[in-house]
Amino acid sequence: MKFSKKIITSAVLFASSSIALAATDSTEIEINVTKDAFVKFTGDLAGNVSRDLTVAEVNGTVTNLGNLGTESNTVGGCDLSITSLNDFRLQHDVNSSLYLHATNKYSINYSGTSFTSGSSGLSLASCNNPASLMQIATPGFDANQVQAGTYSDILTVTVTTQ
């Protein structure tokens, strides 16, 4: 009987251990890293720049303003536009009804495109472009007929990724 108790106890322990169910669990972890897109200007016209020109440089001439390029971490092209606060006219600092070229407007030449009043933008195939020359092309005027003072305009150059 002692021997059969041991066998029965062993059999019960063995049977109970063989019917134990294994437990398991799993999970998936997705890792994402987001780098914000950027586009910026390069060259000596990047940032808020002021260019002082002489009367001779804006009297029927094409004058270099400096170099401007673009740099980005995006794939694809960019759109570039140039707008003028005074509609591409140099306005007198005291008498706002006076313009250096009267009713005539100047244009900005950049990357093979001439920007002036009402012009559309420039579509660039890439957003990474080396700095290239930007110029102002002005109509002529009689310098003796111009009232003394400072004539100015503010250009806004905008680049946008496509």
Helix content: 10-25%
Radius of gyration: 37 Å
Oligomeric state of shown chains: single chain
Q: Summarize the helix and strand pattern as letters.
A: HEEEEEEEEEE
The class by helix and strand makeup works out as: mainly beta
β-strand percent reads: 25-35%
Say how many strands there are: 10
Q: How confident overall, as mean pLDDT?
A: 90
Task: List unreliable stretches of 5+ residues.
Answer: none
Q: What can be said about the biggest beta sheet?
A: 5 strands, antiparallel
Shape: rod-shaped
Q: What is the overall number of helices? A: 1
Side by side, the strands of the main sheet go 1-2-8-5-6
The N- to C-terminal Cα distance equals 90 Å
Topology, please?
Elements: H1 2-18, E1 39-42, E2 62-72, E3 78-84, E4 91-92, E5 107-110, E6 113-115, E7 122-124, E8 129-137, E9 151-152, E10 155-161
Antiparallel strand pairs: 1-2, 2-8, 3-7, 3-10, 4-9, 5-6, 5-8
Which key phrases capture this entry?
mainly beta, five-stranded antiparallel β-sheet, 1 helix, 32% strand
Describe the structure.
The chain is mostly beta strands and 162 residues long. The protein has one helix and ten strands; from the N terminus they run αββββββββββ. The protein has one helix at 2-18; strands spanning 39-42, 62-72, 78-84, 91-92, 107-110, 113-115, 122-124, 129-137, 151-152, 155-161. The strands form three sheets. Strands 1-2-8-5-6 form a five-stranded antiparallel sheet, with no helix packed on it. A hairpin with a 2-residue loop joins β5 (107-110) and β6. The protein starts with a helix and ends with a strand. The model has no long low-confidence stretch (mean pLDDT 90).
